[in-house]
Design goal:
The protein has a domain of 44 residues. Helix content is 50%, strand content 7%. Helix 1 links the parallel strand 1 and strand 2.
Length: 214
């Protein structure tokens, strides 16, 4: 294992994909949980398959095609409901852009300015889903980092040096551990997939006192 992920050293690790709407829906509730518990989260970027857009109905659709279309439509409605509840703007649920530069910035801040990482995540998720950010544009990411009061020049130097290799190495490590879903939560050697497990995670962080949520 490399030291990059720090999965074995962190009380709670959270894996998010900037390009996945369910990861965005998990971001703020997870930040709030960490603040309530006085916990520092080990935030890690991951790439997972994008959502599939609902297919257009056709006369030759079989049951499987219809089922996949209905499921995709249901997921879209769920995203809309919870995004509205959180006051989030998601303009294209099926957007699939190259996140490399954003992930290089993520790992650089995680190493150099960890106290600004949650602000960075908040901004890149907001801008990406508002269609205001190309996450593969190094200059755009440098601007975000500069806006946070961090060393944009330091990021730019790292982005042409160890940055991309670090992103690739982390992806390989997570794949070797069988981690390929976002959002994912790792706590006490257990993996929870999806923000619906936050009540259970809160209970575990609190010492498992009383009966756990079911």
């Amino acid at each position: 294992m490399t030291v990059l992920s720090a999965l074995d050293d962190s009380r709670l690790s959270v894996l998010l994909d900037l390009r996945h709407p369910l990861a965005y829906l998990a971001l703020h509730p997870t930040i709030n949980l960490a603040r309530d518990e006085g916990l520092e989260i080990n935030w890690l970027p991951i790439r997972v398959p994008p959502l599939n857009a609902p297919s257009t109905a056709g006369p030759d659709d079989d049951r499987g095609i219809r089922h996949r279309r209905i499921r995709a439509q249901a997921i879209g409605r769920e995203i809309e409901t919870y995004a509205n509840a959180q006051g989030l703007v998601l303009r294209d649920y099926y957007r699939d852009a190259d996140p490399t530069a954003a992930y290089v910035g993520w790992l650089w801040l995680r190493e150099q300015r960890p106290e600004r990482l949650e602000d960075y995540l908040t901004e890149i998720f907001r801008a990406y889903w508002a269609l205001e950010l190309d996450p593969g544009d190094e200059k755009a990411i440098s601007s975000v980092i500069e806006g946070l009061g961090a060393d944009a020049a330091g990021f730019e130097a790292w982005a042409v040096d160890r940055g991309p290799a670090s992103v690739s190495a982390l992806a390989e490590e997570l794949a070797e551990r069988g981690l390929g879903v976002a959002p994912a939560y790792l706590i006490d050697d257990e993996v929870f997939l999806g923000r619906q497990h936050l009540p259970m995670i809160r209970w575990m962080l609190g010492g498992r006192e009383g009966r756990g949520p079911i």
